[in-house]
Batch of 2 targets.
Target 1
Amino acid sequence: MTYGTTTRRTITERADREVPAARLSKVSATGHVEELSKIADLKRNGDITAAEHERATERVLAD
């Protein structure tokens, strides 16, 4: 299972066009929470290692 940045980027780009700037940060934060949840699920299910989990989490938080 891969949760790439393409989907998140597409959603964010759509949000940039459709959502007022005041609400955009809430949309981005929600996307980050969902992404972190997916990453945690992958680790919990044994689909990724602890190191992969850490790198993926850092990538999301740096975004």
Note: DSSP finds three helices and no strands in the chain.
Target 2
Amino acid sequence: MTTLEWIAQGTLLLLLAAALPLLLRVAHGVAALRRDPAALSGAAEALAASVRDAEAALERLRAAGGATEAALATRIAAAESLRQDLRFLLERAEPLADRLEAAVARGRAAAPPALASRAERDLLLALERAR
């Protein structure tokens, strides 16, 4: 035999040796099920009950998801309406703000600040002379 054949046979032998404990476990499990068929039917019923519970939970999740989706759609529609209202208010307010800013600038340039007391006037006069 060639080296490649020896390697192939060795690999096959190792795989069979690794599978042997698993095969023995399966054989013992099958023998136990044959001895106690009631345990098999009980396990099958428990599995069926678990599947029914999982399906019911899935239906509840779908229903909750649908309700959440509807509520979210309602809020999005309301937010869209508010966004449009705010855009309209902004479009109307910008020219008014520009006019108000221009009027304030003109008012500041036209009138010197009103001084409340003679001391403030004297102080302002002294500062202007110091420049």
Note: The two ends are 113 Å apart (CA to CA).
